[in-house]
Design brief:
The complex is a heterodimer of chains A (about 525) and B (about 575).
Chain A lengths: L4 H18 L5 H25 L8 E9 L4 E7 L1 H20 L16 H21 L3 H10 L1 H10 L9 H37 L4 H9 L7 H18 L8 H8 L2 H26 L1 H27 L4 H21 L3 H32 L10 H4 L1 H14 L6 H16 L1 H26 L15 H19 L2 H17 L14
Helix pairs in contact in A: 1-2, 1-4, 2-3, 2-4, 3-4, 3-11, 3-14, 3-19, 3-20, 4-5, 4-6, 4-11, 5-7, 6-7, 7-9, 7-10, 9-11, 9-12, 10-11, 10-13, 11-12, 11-13, 11-14, 12-13, 12-18, 13-14, 13-17, 13-18, 14-16, 14-17, 14-19, 14-20, 16-18, 16-19, 17-18, 17-19
Chain B lengths: L2 H8 L1 H4 L20 H19 L2 H28 L8 E3 L4 E3 L1 H21 L21 H4 L15 H8 L7 H14 L6 H19 L6 H33 L4 H8 L17 H19 L7 H8 L2 H26 L4 H24 L4 H21 L3 H27 E3 L2 E2 L9 H4 L1 H15 L5 H15 L3 H27 L8 E2 L4 H19 L2 H9 L6
Antiparallel strand pairs in B: 1-2, 3-4, 3-5
Classes of the chains: A mainly alpha (about 525), B mainly alpha (about 575).
């Protein structure tokens, strides 16, 4: 048997979490370095996965298969397709930056008792989330995926509720109340989505008699598994509801601004750049593959919801006074684009959507983490408390600008490629939808540039006069991310090469062909 | 043993005249070996009573704990021995002249009950939690000894009036109510018989045998004695009420079938009347009697499992009873009662599956939703767990309704899972204390995670398991019953089930929020450091929760092998 690379990639951060949690209370720095080393080791393993993956090869590669709970028909089946590889790589890539950015976010306060070990907990929980997210990208068993989809809520919940943003306006008690509200809202929304999905997962098993993704897909393709139309629609809705909460799609998005606002910035990045991707990834892998007919049936409604997300998220972002909530609403807008790309059912749209997931992860991480550095310095999340920062801290302002420009999809930076593909894909299938979605780009320019203008330009505010520029640790976070944004902006081939074959498979599942241009044929 | 032979056991009165004088009475054949689990427990319980009478007070606690643990372990060994001899599968049969079934579900449930009782006994025997004022460490003879300073959760002298001088004297003398151990054993004996009972009279007697000691156990709390006694009276009154229903139902079914044996009644339900008793010629085969009688018996059992609308006693009794008793009762009673319910539905009334289905659906739905919704408003941790147990009864009912072998095994599995989590959770409740004893009000649990991270983390694991979060045993159990229900055509029940799970998740999460995200109060409770006894209970609970969450396969196999009722 060959080396179980996929298991190792998920197991390493899990082991890291346990080791980190076990570091004694007094050795905080040791805990941090342990966590960072484990996350870097995971990155190396993810690189190996990327290297060993053959884009033109089988659909699922590096597969592992072991019996797990025979009574439920559950197997421990792993395998990655191009989409999985891309997102696995994104996750492994971002976690070290998240850890580095959150280096001091969980240092204990003087008032804490000596037995309370927040630092160890914080780093261990992040690694735990990483392990679960990676495994969920690798799972090819519906049940295994479901378990991870639900279980990752628990460490996320403690990350949001247990480690608040120190830069909170108002009293500590008030902050704690808002934080636990945000954490509970996050958990209840996602748990409700997950439980609805549980009903659908059980229903799927009753209908299909198996949890194996490839078995079910094969049975569907060769016609041995007939699903009544209404059954398929109900099951599809059960799955889609959970993913739409996670993604998040309007009108199920309301937990995201709370969670991202109250969490520390690294955790906010973890939510939007990593964990939420599981939702859109699952739409692509599970909704389309298991329920192709129902997916086509639901497309019009989902496209409208995606459009509403794009426009609504962008409009609310324009109106925000809080930097972190602004980025949260911008993310909602971007998730609208991703869903749009997936359900446009064209290969450009789906390639674009996958690429968008990767690029959005990197660009949001860059913008949010630099915003976090800014917020930590001033101790406020309100845009109105800033002004003229670029004169005091030019490097900070510069990195912030590049993150912002990536968010508004400036050509030359990575998100442009994916957004363009999504729009082209949408336009070729549904021209009106494509046109409306373009409005989102205009609004993105508005909220990013206004944010930059209000915080960074203008006269230097008294409160930011003494603001130091980025430190080495912070530069180590910001610069590689920016380099990646530029690299993938001019040369997205490494990612698209991996993603495209997988998208072709998905297109076959839903039996859709790209609309051919009608040039002269009409005459 | 054939159905007619069983039938004749209970209908000899009508045959006496016709039989030859010498044949009036045949000595019953009792398979003592197969009844060993029950007999061991009853025997040691009787011995325990003698211990109370003859062993000096000083040595009673040790003797009783030792005897109880040995009895439960021996009984468990007997169950394992029977299962190893194949009684759970191929040689399952009916013992004791048709009174007791020795089959897979019976042995599985008996094993579960014995293990759960064992870990419960540890919490009964815990003596490190009550602080000094309840025993000054000086024996009446004036010598200082550890045994006198330590007291458990039970009243110094159950017979003394709360607040009276005799109570004070008993406390000062350092008395303890060691009678709880034989009481527990009697109760366990009843519970062992209950799911194995193969005729309605045995069922009724088992019910009383396990209920009466429980009523007493509820009344003997050391702290808040009036509340404890009130709980016991409520439990007793409502319990007697439900027993009366059960008994009346039995009478009606006897009128219907002319027998109280399960197989006999099932035969009549299937239209297979062997010989009509002349005295019952008018009533036998009358479906009205069957339906009303069946419904009344179900009512009696629904009361014991705590299904809505027969759940009213649950919160008060759970709150008032001494917490170790609550844990034991919540876990073991539920196992026994669901076992009996399963046997009744699958052996006696399978012919009624369709008639009963709307009722069962209704009860399951209101139980799931009712338990979950009302739990949200609770402010006392014990009441909260009580309502949560009601919601869980609803989930289990969904599996009962499945009416398939999968349904049986999923319910067996769920019962095993649930009982260990419950005992563990109540054991944690006994640890959180302030000056007034256990601090059960939820507001006092605020910030517990900051003060005692380990205790809070353990309790959080139990809560997550109750909530059915994946990777805990609660999820495996919930998945098993919902899958069985969906397979059995009860998809709407599954949908209601997941919605109530979502509601239920809210209040479990709320407790976790309180423990971890709230600032601790200055005058908050402290977490007492327990002896290895309670630690064992909690550790077993956590271990079972995690093992059955990650790798439930072995126990699922066990449950599905045990999934066949003998008739």
């Amino acid at each position: 048997m060959s080396f179980p690379l996929l298991t190792a990639t998920a197991a390493l951060p899990a082991v890291g979490a346990i080791v980190t949690a076990a570091v004694p209370a007094g050795r905080r720095t040791a805990a941090k370095w342990t966590a960072l080393l484990f996350s870097l080791g995971t990155l190396v393993l993810a690189g190996l996965v990327f290297a060993r993956f053959e884009p033109g090869g089988d659909r699922y590669q590096l597969t592992e298969s072991h019996p797990w709970i025979a009574d439920f028909g559950v197997r421990y089946d792993l395998g990655v397709d191009g989409i999985g590889v891309a997102l696995l790589g994104l996750t492994a890539l971002l976690i070290p930056f998240v850890l580095l950015a959150g280096w001091h976010d969980a240092d204990p306060l003087e008032t804490h008792s000596s037995r309370w070990r927040p630092t160890q907990g914080f780093f261990a929980l992040i690694l735990m989330v990483e392990a679960m997210v990676i495994l969920s990208f690798e799972a090819t068993d519906v049940f295994l995926f479901y378990i991870l989809f639900e279980a990752m809520l628990i460490p996320m919940y403690f990350l949001i509720g247990g480690f608040g943003d120190r830069a909170h306006a108002g009293s500590e008690e008030n902050a704690a109340a808002q934080r636990s509200y945000a954490a509970v809202k996050f958990l209840l929304y996602n748990l409700a989505g997950g439980l609805i999905m549980l009903a659908a997962v059980i229903g799927l098993y009753v209908v299909a008699g198996s949890f194996s993704l490839s078995e079910i897909a094969e049975a569907r393709a060769n016609g041995s598994l007939e699903m009544a139309g209404s059954t398929e629609k109900w099951l599809f809705l059960g799955f889609f509801f959970a993913f739409a909460v996670k993604a998040p799609l309007w009108p199920l998005h309301t937990w995201l601004p709370n969670a991202m606002g109250e969490a520390t910035t690294p955790v906010a990045v973890l939510i939007t750049a990593v964990v939420d991707k599981v939702g859109t990834f699952a739409m692509l892998r599970y909704c389309l593959q298991l329920f192709p007919e129902a997916s086509k049936w639901a497309t019009p409604v989902i496209l409208v919801l995606a459009l509403v997300s794009i426009i609504y998220g962008a409009l609310l972002a324009v109106g925000q006074r809080d930097i972190k909530r602004l980025i949260a609403y911008a993310s909602i807008s971007h998730f609208g684009f991703i869903v749009l790309g997936i359900f446009a059912m064209t290969s450009q749209g789906q390639s674009g959507a996958t690429l968008y997931m990767v690029n959005h992860g990197i660009s949001t991480a860059a913008l949010m983490l630099v915003a976090g550095f800014l917020i930590t310095r001033r101790g406020s999340r309100l845009i109105a408390d800033y002004g003229g920062v670029q004169k005091v801290a030019p490097v900070l302002a510069g990195t912030f600008l590049i993150g912002g420009l990536a968010t508004l999809s400036l050509p030359g930076l990575a998100p442009f490629v994916s957004e363009f593909l999504v729009l082209v894909g949408a336009f070729s299938a549904y021209p009106v939808v494509g046109i409306v979605a373009t409005v989102g780009i205009v609004l993105a320019a508005l909220y990013v540039l206004v944010l930059y203008q209000r915080t960074m330009t203008g006269p230097v505010r008294e409160s930011v006069r003494a603001m130091p520029d980025l430190r080495v640790r912070e530069l180590a976070v910001a610069l590689p991310l920016i380099a990646l944004l530029i690299f993938l902006g001019v040369f997205p081939k490494p990612v698209t090469d991996v993603v495209n074959p997988a998208v072709q498979h998905t297109m076959q599942d839903v039996q859709k062909k790209d609309p051919q241009p009608e040039v002269e044929a009409a005459k | 043993m054939s159905a007619t032979a069983v039938h004749s056991l209970w209908t000899t009165a009508g045959e006496v005249t016709s039989a030859a004088p010498g044949d009036r009475f045949t000595a019953p054949t009792i398979e003592y070996a197969q009844l060993a689990p029950v007999l061991i427990v009853v025997g040691v319980a009787v011995l325990g009573v003698l211990v109370e009478a003859f062993v000096p007070r000083r040595a009673r606690y040790t003797t009783q704990v030792f005897l109880t643990v040995v009895a439960l372990a021996a009984s468990f060994a007997a169950v394992i021995g029977l299962a190893a001899d194949g009684y759970a599968t191929k040689s399952a049969h009916i013992a004791a002249m048709g009174a007791i079934a020795v089959d897979g579900p019976a042995l599985f449930l008996q094993g579960t009950i014995l293990l759960v009782s064992m870990v419960s006994v540890f919490t009964f025997a815990e003596r490190r939690l009550e602080p000094a004022p309840h025993g000054d460490g000086v024996s009446p003879a004036g010598t200082k000894s550890r045994a006198w300073g330590r007291v458990d959760s039970f009243a110094a002298q159950a017979g003394s009036v709360p607040g009276s001088d005799s109570e004070k004297a008993a406390v000062k003398a350092g008395f303890t109510t060691t009678e709880v151990f034989p009481l527990l054993l009697f109760s366990v004996a009843g519970m062992l018989v209950f799911p194995a009972a193969n005729d309605l009279l045995t069922l009724f007697i088992a019910l009383e045998v396990f209920s009466l000691p429980l009523y007493l156990l509820c009344a003997v709390a050391r702290r808040k004695r009036l509340m404890s006694q009130e709980a016991a009276v409520k439990y007793f009154l409502l319990g007697s009420f439900s027993s009366a229903f059960l008994l009346f139902g039995i009478a009606l079914l006897y009128g219907y079938a002319g027998t109280v044996s399960y197989a006999g009644i099932a035969g009549v339900v299937d239209g297979d009347i062997q010989d009509i008793d002349p005295a019952l010629a008018d009533t036998m085969g009358n479906d009205a009697l069957l339906l009303i009688g069946g419904a009344m018996i179900l009512m009696g059992l629904f009361f014991k499992v705590g299904a809505v609308p027969f759940h009213m006693w649950t919160p008060d009794v759970y709150q008032g009873a001494p917490t170790p008793v609550t844990g034991f009762m919540a876990a073991a009673t539920k196992v026994a009662a669901f076992g009996a319910l399963l046997r009744l539905l699958y052996v006696v009334l399978p012919g009624l599956t369709w008639d009963l289905r709307p009722v069962m659906w209704g009860v399951a739905i209101v139980t799931m939703v009712g338990g979950a919704v009302v739990a949200i408003t609770q402010t006392d941790i014990k009441r909260l767990l009580a309502y949560s147990s009601i919601a869980h009864a609803g989930f289990i009912l969904a599996g009962v309704i499945a009416a398939s072998p999968d349904g049986i095994s999923s319910v067996l599995f769920y019962l095993g899972v649930y009982s260990f989590v419950t005992v563990g959770a109540f054991a944690v409740v006994t640890l959180v204390r302030d000056a007034g004893g256990e601090a059960t009000h939820l507001s006092k649990w605020a910030g517990l995670g900051r003060r005692s991270p380990l205790t809070a983390a353990v309790f959080a694991v139990f809560l997550l398991s109750f909530a059915g979060i994946p990777l805990t045993s609660g999820f495996s159990g919930k998945f098993a019953v919902f899958k069985a229900a969906a397979d059995g055509g009860a998809a709407p029940l599954v949908v209601v089930g997941v919605i109530s799970s979502a509601i239920a998740a809210f209040f479990y999460i709320r407790v976790i929020v309180l423990m971890f995200f709230s600032e601790p109060k200055a005058d908050g409770p402290t977490v007492a450091v327990p002896s290895p006894l309670t630690m064992t209970t909690i550790a077993v609970g956590v271990a079972v929760t995690l093992v059955l969450g990650l790798a439930p396969q072995y126990f699922l196999d066990l449950a599905s092998q045990a999934g066949g009722f003998v008739r």
